[in-house]
Amino acid sequence: MEGEASVNKLHTQIEIKPQGQEPPPPYSSVVDNSEMDIQPEGKLPFFKSRYRQRASDTWLISLLVILHLVAFITTTLFNYFSTGSVFFQPLSENPLLGPSASTLDKVGALRRAFLVQNHLNWRFFVCPWLHAGIIHFAINISCMIFIGIHLERDYGPCKSIALSY
């Protein structure tokens, strides 16, 4: 009995209340949430705007996906007409199922020699639209759709284009 009494004495609870602050109101199932910013309990937002979503559609991401598709088709056709009869190079040359390296160089790939020696600065703006192959294109577009739509809804088209490129 003496051992149990000493164990019970060790487990005391001390409640510390901060000075100058009112205690939070007791939990009630009927709460007026019209004035409060509603957030799920236990989850902190990474970016504040996630809980204040905009009501706009995602026109910019749709436009960018279409432009990437047009650029990929144009590069593939350019590869077709420059090599003769092959849309994609063999797997030994391009394992991503895409155009040849020389075709990418012709349509705007970014290489130091082109920038330094030839001063072809337009390649800075063209290179993000080029894709090494259908696999690279599919991964890029899927990331653009899954991430870009959320960025555009949360931050608008101007900020999402700045974050994307």
UniProtKB/TrEMBL annotation:
<protein>
    <recommendedName>
        <fullName>RHOMBOID-like protein</fullName>
        <ecNumber>3.4.21.105</ecNumber>
    </recommendedName>
</protein>
<dbReference type="InterPro" id="IPR035952">
    <property type="entry name" value="Rhomboid-like_sf"/>
</dbReference>
<keyword id="KW-0378">Hydrolase</keyword>
<dbReference type="GO" id="GO:0016020">
    <property type="term" value="C:membrane"/>
</dbReference>
<keyword id="KW-0645">Protease</keyword>
<dbReference type="InterPro" id="IPR002610">
    <property type="entry name" value="Peptidase_S54_rhomboid-like"/>
</dbReference>
<feature type="domain" description="Peptidase S54 rhomboid">
    <location>
        <begin position="122"/>
        <end position="161"/>
    </location>
</feature>
<comment type="function">
    <text>Serine protease involved in intramembrane proteolysis.</text>
</comment>
<keyword id="KW-0720">Serine protease</keyword>
<dbReference type="InterPro" id="IPR022764">
    <property type="entry name" value="Peptidase_S54_rhomboid_dom"/>
</dbReference>
<keyword id="KW-0472">Membrane</keyword>
<dbReference type="GO" id="GO:0004252">
    <property type="term" value="F:serine-type endopeptidase activity"/>
</dbReference>
<comment type="similarity">
    <text>Belongs to the peptidase S54 family.</text>
</comment>
<dbReference type="Pfam" id="PF01694">
    <property type="entry name" value="Rhomboid"/>
</dbReference>
<keyword id="KW-1133">Transmembrane helix</keyword>
<feature type="transmembrane region" description="Helical">
    <location>
        <begin position="58"/>
        <end position="81"/>
    </location>
</feature>
<dbReference type="GO" id="GO:0006508">
    <property type="term" value="P:proteolysis"/>
</dbReference>
<feature type="transmembrane region" description="Helical">
    <location>
        <begin position="129"/>
        <end position="151"/>
    </location>
</feature>
<keyword id="KW-0812">Transmembrane</keyword>
